Amino acid sequence: MTPVESVSLAAGAGKAAVHLPDSLFPLDGFTSVHDPLYVRVLVLDDGTTRIALTVIDQTSVFDEQVTRTQEIVQRACAVAPSNCLVVASHTFSAPHVLPPDRAPRAEREKNTRLSRAVDDAVARAAAEALRTLRPARIGSGLGSCRVAVQRDVPTPHGWWLGADDAGPTDDGVRVIRIDGPEDHPVAVLVNYGVQPSVMNGSTTREGGRQVTADLAGVATARIEERYGGGTVALFLVGAAGDQAPYLTAVRTAVGDDGTLLRTDAHEDGNVLARMLGERLGDEAARVAEGVRTAAPAAPLRVVHGRVEVPAQVPPAGLHTLRPSRRYAFIPDGTTDVPLVVARLCDCVLVGVQAELNARTGTALRSASPFPATCVVTMVNGAAKYMADSDSYDRITYGAMNSRYGKGAAESVVARIVEALHDIHDSR
C-alpha cells in the first residue's frame, strides 16, 4: 500500500426551503405548517471524483423520487447518479411524496404539486452548492448526548414501544466538519441514532397535523445559527430503528388487558422537539468547535454493493401489530439489500435503506478499520426495519414490522465490514 500524502478537496453546500402554500392543505392528514421543511445539498470534489449528499426533510424517499433527485443534482452539479446519496432526515411530520400511482385519487393533484415543490428546492440547493464550491479541508469529532432512548420495553403481554433507560442505546454524536479557506465551516454533518419523531402522530387540539422538521430541523438550525451565513448543517439519521426521542408528544402504553392507551400533548409537544433539538445541536456545535480540519490524505470514493439476506412476510398493516409472545414470523425466501459506502477522505459514511438497531450500528463501527465511521440509514430509499437477531427472539415491534428475516442485520454487517476493509487497504 502506497500512502497518499495529500489530496486536494473542494466543497460547496446549499440549503433551500420547500414552499408549501396554504392551498396545498389538507394533504396526507396535514393541515398547516409549524416550521419549514428544507433540502440541503453538499458537493465534494477531489479533482477526479465528485460526490453529492442530499438530505431532504421527509419521512422517507421512495425509489422514484430518489432517481428524480439524482437526475436533478446531476444536471445542476455534474455529479454521476451513482455518486449522489439521497437521505431522508426521517421527520415523521411531513406529507409523503408519493409516486403518482400510489397517491390517493382525491390528493393526486396536491401530491404532484408537493413533489414539484421538493424538486424545486433540490434544484435550488444544488445550484447553491455548486456556486459555493471552493477549496476545503475536512475533519471529524465525537461527542455524546442523551436525546435518544431505547424504545423496546417489556410488558406482561410482550415487548412494545415505550422508553427503557436501561436498554441498549448509542449516545455518540459523530460530527464531520468541512472548512473553506477562511476556516469557516462550509458544512457540518451530524450523525446521530434517533428517529426525529417527537411529534409523530400528534395532532393539534382542533384535530389537524402540523408539518415540522422536528428535532433534526431544530438541531441543524441551531448549528447554522451558531456559524451564521455560509454554513449548512446536514442531519444523517443513524442506527435508530429502536431509538426514540427521550420525550415525545404522543405517549403509548399497554393496559392491563393488552389494549393500547394513547395520550397526546398536541401543540405543546413542539416545546419538547425544541428542547431535544437544541440539546443535540449544541453538542454537535461543541464538537465541531474542537475539530481540526486538514487536507485529506485519501481521495473520495463511492462503492456500491448488495447482500442476499433472509426475508419474511411483512404484516398486513400496522393496525394488526400488538404486543405478542407468539407472533408467527413467516419465512419468504431471500431478498437483496443494497449497500453504499462513501469515503470522504479519512471518514466513511455507510449507507443502507433499512432502519438498523443501535446494537447493529455499534457492531458495525466496532469492526470498521476507519476511526470515523458514520452509519447512516434511510439512504437512497426506504425499507422499514432490519432488527438484530435478539429482537426476533423477544418479538419486538421492529422485528414484526419488517420484510427481513432473522439474521439479515448480521449478514449486512459482515458484508459492509468486508467492503470497508477492502477500501481501507486499497488506498
In a nutshell, what does this entry contain?
The protein has eight helices and 22 strands. It has helices at residues 63-77, 108-131, 214-227, 269-289, 358-367, 389-394, 397-400, 408-425; strands at residues 10-17, 30-33, 38-45, 50-56, 84-88, 134-135, 137-144, 148-155, 158-164, 172-179, 185-192, 209-211, 232-237, 243-245, 250-254, 260-264, 301-312, 331-344, 347-352, 355-356, 372-376, 385-386. Helix 1 runs parallel beside helix 2 and helix 5 runs parallel beside helix 8.
Task: Itemize the secondary structure elements and their pairings.
Elements: E1 10-17, E2 30-33, E3 38-45, E4 50-56, H1 63-77, E5 84-88, H2 108-131, E6 134-135, E7 137-144, E8 148-155, E9 158-164, E10 172-179, E11 185-192, E12 209-211, H3 214-227, E13 232-237, E14 243-245, E15 250-254, E16 260-264, H4 269-289, E17 301-312, E18 331-344, E19 347-352, E20 355-356, H5 358-367, E21 372-376, E22 385-386, H6 389-394, H7 397-400, H8 408-425
Parallel strand pairs: 2-12, 4-5, 11-13, 19-21, 20-22
Antiparallel strand pairs: 1-3, 1-6, 3-4, 7-10, 8-9, 8-14, 10-11, 15-16, 17-18, 18-19
Keywords:
427 residues, alpha/beta, globular, 5-stranded mixed beta sheet, single chain, 4-stranded mixed beta sheet
Characterise the protein shown here.
26% of the residues lie in helices and 32% in strands. The chain is an alpha/beta fold and 427 residues long. The protein has a domain at 301-425. It has a five-stranded mixed beta sheet with strand order 5-4-3-1-6. The chain has a four-stranded mixed beta sheet with strand order 7-10-11-13. The protein has a four-stranded mixed beta sheet with strand order 17-18-19-21, covered by helices on one side. The longest helix is centred in the N-terminal third of the chain and has 24 residues, at 108-131.
